[in-house]
Amino acid sequence: MICNNCGTANNEDAKFCKNCGNNLAQGETTQPEQTTQQAQQTQTQTQTQLEQHIQYVTPEKMPRVENYLVFSILVTLLCCLPLGIAAIIKSSQVDKELAIGNYEGALAASKQAKTFNLIGVISGGVFVLIWVVVTFILPLLLAFGL
Ligand SMILES: [Zn+2]
């Protein structure tokens, strides 16, 4: 058998060329081409898969949704505990909804957190105003008989 790579005559039953080690059974000249084609195909496939993967893992950029968390904590500490806790729950819900990609839900929770905080600030302000009137202004008015 003549090796088609180097032209050396080998035994008929030889599987490999004794001169260059070429695989006589398959014929070396056509095989590398196939391998190269296959490799290119595989590379193209991998690229396509990679592109799909990138598209999949990069979601549409969502606008930031305000969670009012600091505001909610301040309302809890400075004003009214139950209202503040409700606001904190809504604030943390904003991030949870964003994490699962529910933009509408995040917006709704953000709105509710804002509402709770506004109620907290307004009622807190009214409470402070009444407290100031009762403990400072009213006694002074009474004491001086104005
Ligand atoms: Zn050979």
How would you explain this protein's 3D organization?
- This protein has 4 helices and no strands.
- With 146 residues, it is mainly alpha-helical.
- It folds into 2 domains: 58 residues; 75 residues, no CATH class.
- The longest helix has 41 residues.
- Bound molecules: zinc ion.
- The site of zinc ion has 8 residues, from loops.
Characterize this entry briefly:
The chain is an all-alpha fold and 146 residues long. Helices cover 66% and strands 0% of the residues.
Low-confidence stretches: none
Structural class: mainly alpha
The whole-angstrom Rg is 39 Å
Distance between the termini: 127 Å
User: What is the succession of H and E elements?
Assistant: HHHH
**Residue share in β-strands:** under 5%
Q: How would you state the average pLDDT, rounded? A: 82
**Overall 3D form:** rod-shaped
Domain count: the total is 2
Name the features:
146 residues, mainly alpha, 2 domains, 66% helix
Show the helix and strand layout.
Elements: H1 31-57, H2 69-78, H3 81-99, H4 103-143
This protein binds zinc ion.
